[in-house]
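for the record, two folds in this file. i put them one after another cuz i was lazy. first one right below, seq on top, structure tokens after. the second one comes after a little note so u can tell where it starts
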Amino acid sequence: MSSMSTASGRPHVELRLPADSAFVSVLRTTSAGLAARLDFTLDDIEDLRMAVGEACAIVLTGATEGDLLAEFWLEQRTMTVRVSAPGAPTELDPEEDFAWQVLTTLASEAKLEHTGDTVALSLQFAALPLETGV
């Protein structure tokens, strides 16, 4: 996926938390705060929050003990989020899995990766232009 190439460089923000669903709200709040700095609309911010929650749920399904790592790449009106944790591969049937359908509806792009002993899910979001003129 060529448009997700922004995730190839060093992340602008990196957050490491225990791989436990109790900490997902921290990542959702962080995502919303970063999106607000990029002038995402309230609807875009809420979509991002939901997608990050779903991404964490998918990654944590196969997670073993260790840290949940969230990386954020910030561009003008675009954000790429990568959530990863040590764990076994997570198999998703894109036509059957509700969480995957939610992700692909809310995000511009979604990609699930298994590298070594790590499960990672990358999402890209593009903010809609703010309406001007009242």
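(here's the note) second protein begins now
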Amino acid sequence: MKPLTRWALVVLVVVIIGILLFFWRRGDQPQAPVKGEIAMQPVVPKPEPKAEPRPEPKPEPSPAPVKPKADEPLTATVLFDYNRSELRSGEAPKLDELTARLKGRAFDSLGAIGHADRIASNAYNLALSKRRAETVRTYLVGKGVDAKRIRIVAKGEAEPVTGEACKNMGPENRKNQKLIECLQRDRRVEIEPVVTP
């Protein structure tokens, strides 16, 4: 072999060995970060702890028909001013509460019983107590109560609730304000449901 060929082979082998060493050493060195967009590793969410299974809610039983409670009377009494058949201010909420309690309740009819105090004649007071009861019926019908189920009763001055409290208070006329104030509870309409057993 010619010396020139030998030298060429030696140089070629040295170059190949140099290239191999270069790549071999390069694999051991840490890689420099690549410039440009950074590839993010996807973040895997941590699994949430499993909750204890809840028991299935039991279906609620269907509500039984509402019956009046013994301690919840379905009655109301509204008071009237002297010689008047219009509702007094402040009395309407009593009727509103009664109609709310009547909803869903079983009753055959509703009695509206009108009363008057003892001042004036029996005939006048009977007519006045009837007008008061009719005023209450009109109000209740406006609140959704069936007019055919409201029974009007006029008692006049026959059933006072003041009893002896207003006795001997002077003349029994419209000028005696002390007597008129004392007899206030007699000027009323009582409302009560009538249930046939």
